[in-house]
Structure formats: structure tokens, C-alpha cells
Amino acid sequence: MAIKFLCRGIAARRARSSRLCIFAFLIFMLMGCAQQGSLLSGPNAPLGVDQQTGIIPAVGENSQTDFSSLDPAQAGDRASLLVTNMTSTGLVSLDNKLQVRPQLATSYTATDGGLTWTFTLKPGLMFNDGSHLTAQDVIYSLNRALQPLTASPTASTFLGAIKDADKLRSGQVQTLIGDSLLAPDERTVIIKLAQPDLSFLSALSNSCAFVVKKQLVERYGSDWTSHMSEGGSSGPWFIEHSIKQATRYIVLKPNSHYYGAKPRLNKAIVTFYINAQTVYRAYEANQVDIAPVPASLMARARGLGGSQLRQTPGLLTYYYALNYLVKPLDNIKVRQALALAINKDVLARTIYDGTMRPTNNIIPSGIPGYAPTLTGPDGVTTTMGNEQRSRQLLDEGLQEEGLTRDVFRNINFEVYSGIPSDANIKDEYNAIRTMWKDVLNIDVRINDVNGAKYYGDIQNTLNNPQGLGIWRLSWNVDYPDPHATLAPQFGRGTPNNAQNYGQNSASDSSQQQETQAMMAQADSIADQQQRYSRYAEIEQRLINDVAWIPLFQNVKSFVVKPCLQGWNISALDQLPPDDWSGVYLSKNGACAHNV
Q: 585 φ, ψ to 5°?
């Protein structure tokens, strides 16, 4: 409007108004850019389009040596999830603050007391090949994720609230389409739940709820992800070339049919690395633009210039699990004694150099429902343990069981240090063994085994008194709700309940089962704050029972090249789909690909 009036004034006074109007327009635009912090000059000015290639590391887990699966329903490791979160989307997503936001949906409502959820899709949705994405694609994808043949490791957890999902998984019904999954028209999705569940909306942000293209799956079967370049992407990126398994990197290009703001990068190369140490060395060699920082390399990261080191609380809880079917670990006093003999502050300070935050909580801070006032076992208020009380509890527990301290020599304490071995993990479990020996006068032998044996042994500990006695694991919250941590790990009959909580014959097993019943009822509470309060009560009971011995919540430490702008991932290690439009490479220092 200002240009229009300016040109009218000039036209009234001069014959060559058109050229002056153009000149005035250019001056006006340059002034506007200057007012907005111009990207035309300065260190944060973008590189040219042909230089906008980001090199992003994908870090493997455990004994993993490649992307495990690019099928959103099957992806479960960090490396695969990084790619699936770039190429696929679902009805909703989580923003940078872990709040639920519409994604494929433009709106959603809950009716029937929370039993029925109705989603209205955005108009004109397409896959990356330009074909239409409709409500039928959404319900097909949800139904497929729950099918037994899909073998999704996550669908039963995140989509299990859908009515008759358990019957589909067990083979009692063949499909949920037309039953609890409905698409009355191309833009309407209706999902019916077995019972009201306020955590369901957050659960839908998991990759197992992402949309896949039916025609591609039916054409290529289990190998369909090798052909995603042909048009199976609904997210801001698509895979540029057809790939096979055992690839070391994946090249992605912006999806021109993406419904949201398009990526500013011209290309993203996601490169697989076996562990964080290798990635950090690649970062120092200018081979990647970002990298996690292992605790052993924190001093080097702190010495980097340009504010490259960034730290933020993560959502990963590290813990030790105890098998409730193994004596004397079925005694609550013995479990509390083992927990209170550990000084978590010493471990965090001497081994992890600020990359871990000691905690007594099972649920990490940073998500709705976190309860900071909960105490540790037996009411301890610090993370330093209580040596005197731990000795007293162990004496009482062993006396109740008619056992001596020698019984601990027969307990299978199994760990996996990784490939190559992680010195921090070794230092950690050896320090815990020493604390138990010094404080409690018990000797627990440690078996460090390979990854395949370790995870197989944990799986075989479910309902098995001959299984592992003690093991170390971590749990990363997949969506920001207390349900995401407590229900999968400690719920009645859940496959992750290898510690056999509530499914044992200990003297306090009835109280454990009462806690499980409270857990099953919590998500039907209509008022969100009341639901969070109930979960806090449940968590305190689990802590008192030593359902886990939680040690740390991770502090996410990573380095970012000064040239990379807009890289603001959430605590879930995810960049929200629409946030890719703010990521670009600037002239502020050398990037990985232009050194």
C-alpha cells in the first residue's frame, strides 16, 4: 500500500514515473530487509542454493550396524526414526516444546466422553509423487501397523488404546477398518477407543501412526521401503534414490508436494555412525554438521569456539532393573537396600562430567506430569543414598528370607558395554558393584556380554525365575505423557515388564497389583491435572517398591557447526516437520561439506 501511494505522488510530478516507481520499490524492499535483520549480508547470510547440503549423522544403538528399518511402523532405533520423521507424518506431531499440534489434520475433536476422536484432514494432501493422500490412507496405515504380520515393535504400545486393537493383534479379527477405524469421506478420520484415554493424542505422534502409501506396500511387499523414491513420503523430505538395506547413508530431497513450509536446505545427507564417539571425531574432521558429545569428550567440546556446544535436558532415564522372581530380590527391603547403597551424585560427577542428572524419578523432567517433589525409596530426599539405612534394610530383608549375604554370588548381574566398549558404562557398573561391596558387604559378579545375548536374555527374563537377576537399561520417552513411561514398563502383562513387577508371589505382590490397577484406570480420568496427580501417586509407589533403580536423566550435549542455523531439536531428538523451513547453512564458518 505504501508503494502504491508513493508511486501515485511521483507520477503526478514526473513523466518518467515508471522507472522512479521501480527505483522506489527497490529502496523500500531493501529498507524492509534491513529492518528484519537482513539475510543479504553478515555472518548469518545463507550460502547459495547449490551449497545448501546438510550432513546429518544417524547414531546407531547397541549392536546395530545400519538403519534397522525405514518403515514407520517398524522403526524403533534412533537412526531409523531420524529418517522416518523426515519423510513421513501422521495426524498430529509434537512441536519444539513437546506440545501436540495438528499435522495432516487441521483439527480434531473428542466426543462420547473421550471414546471417539474425529480428525479433519487438511485439503489437498499429497504424497511426494503428487498422488492424493486421503482419510483412507490414514486408516489403512493405522490398521496395517497393528497387523501381526507387520511386526511393529511399537504399535501395540502406542495404538493399543484403539478399540479391538488387541483382537487384531491376536488374530481374532482381520481388520479394524469399518469397526474402530472409519473414513466416511476423503477428509474425515474417525478413531474409536476401547476406553477414554487422554494420552492417546500424544501417542499418535509416534512413527507407527505415520501414513504409508498402500499401493507401494502392496506392489513391493516387505521391500517397499527400498522404493520410497517412487512416492511414499508425506513429510517434508523424500528419499532421492531407491535403496537397499546395509546402506551407510541416505540422500533426501525436499518434497515439493509437502503441505507445510518447505525445507530451505536443498539436500540432506543422513549418514550412519556406529556410536557417538565416532560421530564426534567425524565432526572434528568436518565430515558432519552436528554431533552428540560423549562424556569422555566433554572437555574437548567445551574448548570449541563459536558457542558450538549446546546442552539441554533430555528425556532418557538410565536405570537398573531387578527380577522380582529371583531371591532375595523379591523382598522389598532387599531391593530398597540395593537402591540406597548407591550414591548417584558421585557417579554423575566422577564418571559423566555433567552429562547426566542424578534422579530418583522414573518419569523424566520436561514432560507434562513430571512430579519434582517425589522422594526416593524409604522416603529419602536426596540422590546420595543412605548407607546406614541401606545396611539396616538388608539385614532385615535377609533375616525375613532366612538367607545370608552369600546368596548374591549366585545372582546373574548382566551388562552390555557396547561395540566398542563404552568406558563410562564400565566405570559406572564397577563403581556400583564397589558401593554394594563397601556399604552392604555383598559381592555381585558382573557378566559383560555381547548385544545379541544381552537383549535376548532380558526378553527371556519375563516370567522366568531362572532369568537375569540385575541388568542395566535406559528408557527414552516416546511421547510426552506419564503413560509413555509407566504403562509399557510396569503394566499388567506388558512385554517390557521383564522385572516381573506385579506378576510374582512376593509378600507384597498384592500391593504391586493394586498399583497396576491404578495405572490401568489413570487414563480414563477426564480432568488432565487430576490424571497427572494420580500418575504421581503411582510413580511414588513404584519408586518405593524399587520397580527400577533410576540413576540418571540424561543431559543432551551436542555440538553444532556455526554455519548451521535453525537447528532446534526437541527433547525427543526430533525436529518438528514444519521447522525444517527454518534450517539453512550460512556463511558463519565452514560447514561439513564445503571445507
A: -100, 130
Nearest CA to 260 out of 106, 100, 47 is that of: 106
Q: Name, in order, each residue with C-beta under 8 angstroms of 541's C-beta and a sequence gap of 6 or more.
A: 511, 515, 518
Per-residue DSSP letters for 272-303? EESSHHHHHHHHHTTS-SEEE--GGGHHHHHT
Low-confidence ranges of the chain (pLDDT < 50): 1-39, 245-246, 595
Strands 470-476 vs 413-415: parallel, antiparallel or unpaired: parallel
CA distance 189 to 182: 6
CA 437 vs CA 260, 347, 425: distances in Å: 58, 16, 18
The predicted-structure confidence for 61-101, as pLDDT tens digits, reads as follows: 766 677 888 999 999 888 889 999 999 999 999 998 888 99
- Please, are residues 562 and 588 in contact by the beta-carbon 8 Å criterion? yes
DSSP 8-state assignment for residue 313: E
Tell me the pLDDT tens digit for each residue of 117-152.
Answer: 999 999 999 999 999 999 999 999 999 999 999 999
Other Cβ atoms less than 10 A from the Cβ of 313: the count is 14
Tell whether the torsion through CA atoms of 85, 87, 91 and 95 is positive or negative. Answer: positive
Please tell me whether residue 134 adopts helix, strand or coil conformation.
coil
C-alpha 552/C-alpha 203 separation (Å) is: 24
